[in-house]
Amino acid sequence: MPDHRSDQAGLQPEPAPARAARPLRVSVDLNRCQAYAQCCYAAPDHFVLHGREALYYDPAPDAAARLEIERARIACPVQAIHVEDAGSHGR
Ligand code: SF4
User: Fold this and answer.
1) In the chain, how many domains are there?
2) Which residues are near ligand 1 (CB < 6 Å)?
């Protein structure tokens, strides 16, 4: 009797990469942003406010920054920061 176990094992999906290893895509709704600067305190390496007009941010931070970026997203009082995995199609 043939043994099909090795064939079945070949059909197994590869394990999904760890969530923390995926690069991020960050966007800020600048129409919503009120320059409260909470993101700058939460993730100073990724969000910088110049005056009260211009928010500079890293749109493609390394996955290692996920915790800081999520902290900034949560800290924003007007929910202007959106974070998703690079390559995803958004929500
Ligand atoms: S915390 Fe939100 S409102 Fe404040 S500067 Fe950052 S994105 Fe803008």
Assistant:
1) 1
2) 28, 33-39, 47, 49, 55, 76, 78, 80-81
**Closest atom of ligand 1 relative to the 34 alpha carbon:** 3
Pairing of strands 47-50, 54-57: antiparallel
Q: Say whether pTM exceeds 0.85.
A: no
| 72 CA: nearest ligand 1 atom | 1
Domain that holds residue 70: 18-85
What's the rounded Cα separation, in Å, for the pair 1 and 57? 62
Q: How confident is the model at residue 52 (pLDDT cuts 50, 70, 90)?
A: confident
Q: How far apart are CA 2 and CA 10, in angstroms?
A: 16
Domain assignment of residue 9, yes or no: no
Q: Do the domain assignments include residue 1?
A: no
DSSP state of 63: G
